[in-house]
Amino acid sequence: MTIYGIDLGTTYSCIARVDSSGRPEIIRNRLGREVTPSVVYFESPFHVVVGDDAKKAALTHPDLVVSRIKREMGHPEAELDFHDRSFTPEGISAFVLGDLVGSVREATGEEVKDVVITVPAYFGVAERESTKAAGAIAGLNVVNVVAEPVAAAFFYGVHDTDATRTVLVFDLGGGTFDTTVIRLGPGEVTVVCTDGDHQLGGADWDDRLAAHLCDLFTEQFPGTGAEDDEKFLQDIALHAEELKQSLTSRQACRHRMTFGDHTAVVEVRRDTFEAITAEFVERTMAITERTLGLAAERGVDHYDEVLLVGGSTRMPAIDTALRERFGFAPKLHEPDLAVAKGAAWFALHESVRLRRPVGDDSPAAEIARAMELPEGVVRATAERAVTNVVPRAFGVAVVDPADPDGDSFLVNHLISANTALPVQKRKQFVTAYDDQTSIQVLIYEQAGSIESEEAEHNKHIGEAVVSRLPPLRKGSPVDVTFKLDADGVLNVDVLEIKTRGTATVDIKIGDLTERQVARARDDVARLT
């Protein structure tokens, strides 16, 4: 059975597969479009609408429409209530996934079961596990998740297996931003380093333009209360995205706004739009500069290609900034579809891997026949290894030596961001107090953009406890080992040296319980 690749985007999503000719194919939705808005409308207690119609419903029923839910992935507390029922970000995302696979069923007659879903490169453990949970709620088997820049690079370089190139993937989507340095070589896709911000994307440009439009209206007609009217604001928000897209090719656009008896026709110029959103461009450039600096430390001194991925990279200001600041000559690389098509290639890679486990020498020809694909495509895919990096640092809480009372703590990182996967690191610590009969190891993941030992710059993701120990002296040695596998699952081993007391825990943060997944799956089935 085909494994499909899904680009589950903040603002738009799509699904793809490698077809019988060996080319990635986007499966169009019920409206014949390649991309579907990642918007969900809870029309009634018994029905949910996804996509373009849901986006339009925001004008009339804004309180029943959800968009940009991807930004809440990994935050289990971010539940939303509709028609007296609560829905998690994973559950809402599952409606989008369900709509995508429903389109495949209608277009091809094939039931989608196994999928690969893309995630921003800078997603942490919680967000990645939440994405997998969303797939499970949608009734899918998530074979793997793949970083969006890796998918784009996979699509870009899958057929060229001889040359060795270094590419910078600048991925600015609707709600997230990543910049990633990747080496493409014979049989390999290797991530050198990555950085990003999953709270920055084209939607921020839309919001700033919408606020500007609202200001222009209220300047002409003060005191109308338009700035507090939900319907008026939703109308502006919908048109802001359209205006942004028009300003990609035009120097100025006119827009008509009506509220009550008042109508304003305003002109928005590209230079004005670029001025009011310049801070967002600067944020992307600062992150890019950090990434290039780390890549230089790792021996990267030139770039063969700079790939612009994500629909928001169409904005001329992005191309201009990259040229002026770094001297790059970036190129658009199917910005809306590259990630989904790359996910399809990666899905094929995973399909071949599952059919030919380690130690199995089944020839590519045999697998190609079974999958009804060209042998050359299967061979090129099977022979390509993918090496990723840790997007964020991981560590443990230690007592702050500057605090004489021992009430505050710092985070000591065992694994740094951008370490190649898989990785294993061991470090010895000591107990903080006399007469400890248990050792609690609190596990943290970097939360900010820069690795920091400050507690507020890290996120608590789990713990391991060694208990039933004899009273230990302060300073007793304790070994802590972090093992992070290629799929991003963190295993933590704790060993108290004197008694050989141990504790082991697998950290898979953000995944719901089986009962919660089953309940959410029932909701999806009931409402679609």
Description of the molecule:
The two termini are 24 Å apart. The chain is an alpha+beta fold. The strands form 7 sheets. Strands 1, 2, 3, 4, 10 and 11 form a 6-stranded mixed sheet that branches. A 6-stranded mixed sheet has the order 18-17-12-13-14-19. Strands 21-20-23-24 form a 4-stranded antiparallel sheet, with no helix packed on it. Helix 3 (125-137) links the parallel strand 10 and strand 11 (141-147). The chain has 13 helices and 27 strands. It folds into 3 domains: 4-200 and 285-387, Nucleotidyltransferase, domain 5 (2-Layer Sandwich), CATH 3.30.420.40; 202-277, ATPase, substrate binding domain, subdomain 4 (Actin, Chain A, domain 4, Alpha-Beta Complex), CATH 3.90.640.10; 394-507, Substrate Binding Domain Of DNAk, Chain A, domain 1.
What key attributes describe this structure?
alpha+beta; 528 residues; Actin, Chain A, domain 4; 6-stranded mixed beta sheet
- Counting DSSP E segments of at least 2 residues, the number of strands comes to 27
Biggest sheet architecture: 6 strands, mixed
Q: What portion of the residues fall into strands of 2 or more residues?
A: 25-35%
CATH topology of the largest domain: Nucleotidyltransferase, domain 5
Number of domains in the coordinates?
3
CATH superfamily assignment of the largest domain? Answer: ATPase, nucleotide binding domain
Shape: globular
- CATH hierarchy, class of the largest domain: Alpha Beta
How does CATH name the architecture of the largest domain? Answer: 2-Layer Sandwich
Q: What's the tally of helices?
A: 13
Structural class: alpha+beta
Low-confidence runs? none
